Amino acid sequence: MMVRNGQRKLNVTLSGMSEYCDAIYVLNDRSTDDTHVVCMQFPKVANVFTADPGISQQDWFFPESAMYNLLYRMADLYRPDWIIQLDDDEYITPAVRVREVLQAVPPNVSCVKFPKVSAWNDPEYPMLVPLMGKATNISAAAWRWYPGLKAGEQPLHNPRLPLNIHDHGEVMISRELQFVHQGWDTLEKRIGAVNKYFALDPEAHCNHGVPYDKGLLFGYSRDQVNLLIEEYRHRYAEMSGAYDFIPTASK
Prior knowledge:
This protein is of the alpha/beta class. It has helices spanning about 10-20, 35-40, 65-75, 100-105, 130, 185-200, 210-215, 225-240; strands at about 1-5, 25-30, 45-50, 80-85, 90-95, 110-120, 135-145, 170-175, 180.
């Protein structure tokens, strides 16, 4: 796990990981809250490397590629059978089946990809997911450990999989587990993420050229949020059969 200021969310993630991990290695990226204290409350947390918060509080001050490679080297010290990398706002469900699912993977498979589902908990727009999009993709993964695994080379938004995992076997897809991401569970949080990513990567070079707003705002651009809300309201009314019903406050 790589985490920065995750005090409020870590308990859920570390509780789940403690059900299926033999050891949890944490890269604490310049946190100024009690992230380290929370980590130390979990016996399965075997190693925490903390980057000095006094260096900088800039987002992605250290390139994500370098941080991922450090995590891979930390895993080398344990020589595990399998590696699962989560953010502090993610968890796997059902956690009790993780070991069972991975133990059944054929030996020629080096990696298993799973659905990643964005949770939705927006009281103002409660049905925006799924009415405007499923908020699900096949981007989560668990992989076997091999020496010399390498991360991508981007400063942010590298694939979660090691760059060279394909050299060691086939990649299969399974839907027996779901990775749940809670970081973008309201429209407000998604708009905030769009603004942050645009500031860091204006041309979306690290996102395969896909504009961040189109990806996070259900195909709409930043200046079309009102149109997104209007279309949501229309679909909500259509679903409920009451076109005069206004499901949310307008902005």
